[in-house]
Amino acid sequence: xxxxxxxxxxxxxxxxxxxxxxxxxxxxxxxETLFLRxxxxxxxxLCTPECFLDGYVSSDESGWPEPGFRDVAQPLDGxxxxxxxxxxxxxxxxxxxxxxxxxxxxxxxxxxxxxPDGDLLGVYHKTHLLDxxxxxxxxxxxxVWETSxxxxxxxxxxxxxxxxxxxxxxxxxxxxxxxxxxxMWHLDNEWWMRTRSYENECYICFTHxxxxxxxxxxxxxxxxxxxxxxxxxxxDVDLGDLPTRxxxxxxxxxxHG
Length: 257
What we know:
Blueprint: E1 9-16, H1 24-40, E2 45-47, H2 69-72, H3 79-91, E3 94-102, E4 107-114, E5 120-125, E6 144-146, E7 151-154, H4 163-171, E8 176-180, H5 188-200, E9 203-207, E10 211-215, E11 221-226, E12 231-238, H6 245-248
């Protein structure tokens, strides 16, 4: 006699749109419209692309207008993070909100993790910075949050290139990894994320201005939306059905050097 795995469905909503660099007000309007669309479709957790609020201005090669980089960055108690918290509270959903965070020592490529009561559960700072990201300070941790939906980790864009990022999140208990991104506008994103899901036996939700992906614990492409039209990919994942065959046979005692 076999026991069926417990069902723990989570409906994710991945916001897909190309933000306007430097235009916080326009990007907020686009975000709010798509957020509400995701809520209407029953999403329990919504995620924006990387630095959606400011349009990921760190990568702007066309020249830097006024205001500058730090001027469009937002403190955690600033207007737009507060508005994002209010929106999550009003609709009772989790939200991962991409923005440039202004801190005393500098700026971070940040994703605020907001709970359904509007509480700021935490902030993830991108840990792996490429050349165009060096205006940011690097993050120093890979946290996993225990939520009513399950254990959730975040990695941002290029973080996915290093297998240690997703593996660390999984070892720390993540069942669902959210991956707000902006760069690498090509098919490689798909097989990278399928590989990361397979080797860690978990779901990964990849949110990009041009394509959204949900990859599953067997390396499958569970859902995909690729469009030039702003939209939200909404998909159900079952966190009660995660395999652990490979994971339980790891040999961390020999993984060093």
